[in-house]
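pinging the channel bc i need a second pair of eyes. not urgent but kinda urgent?? the chain im working w is below, pasted from the shared doc
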Amino acid sequence: MIGPTETPELWEFLHSLRRDDVLTGTIAAVEPFGVFVALDEGPKHPEFPGVGFITLPELSWRFFEDASEIVHVGQRVSCLFLQADTTNGQARLSLCTGPDPFQAFADRTAVGQKLRGRVTKVLPFGIIVEVADGIHGVVHRSELLPPDAEPSEDAFPPGTALTVVVTALDRLRRTVSLSQRQVGAT
């Protein structure tokens, strides 16, 4: 932990920031747990590659598997300031600006509604289906057709078009649960 007496200019800078301030900088490091940003303004961090830090959920509204799909070292970025991390002496930032496309999807989608989508990934517990631009939902193995279907790329090749029914929408977690079995019931 970096104390305020060790780097007073860092603490002064962090306390001068206000939520939703726009900060610019350069991606300094991409790690499995988040992204460090060397900010244009403010002091350098005594321990980390940058004073700015973006957690994975704050990198993009869209689904991604690896941070390197969104940013790369040396890339210039404009970020929103969220809060000062007083444990690590960092500015917590977000690249997610503008309205959340998931919330817009949830506004126009109801539980029980049929949607067309395409398989994007097969997992041991089910399949992932993109039901709108950048919006992915899960069809649990118990909701696949035929009833004894195993989630495999042989049975559900990526790119396959499916009709599914929305069984749950969680705005807070930004998740969509889907069913292939309930398509005939609606």
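so The beta strands are 22-31, 34-39, 52-55, 76-85, 90-94, 114-123, 126-132, 135-140, 161-170, 175-179. and The domain at 101-185 is CATH 2.40.50.140 (OB fold (Dihydrolipoamide Acetyltransferase, E2P)). — does that match what u expected or am i reading it wrong
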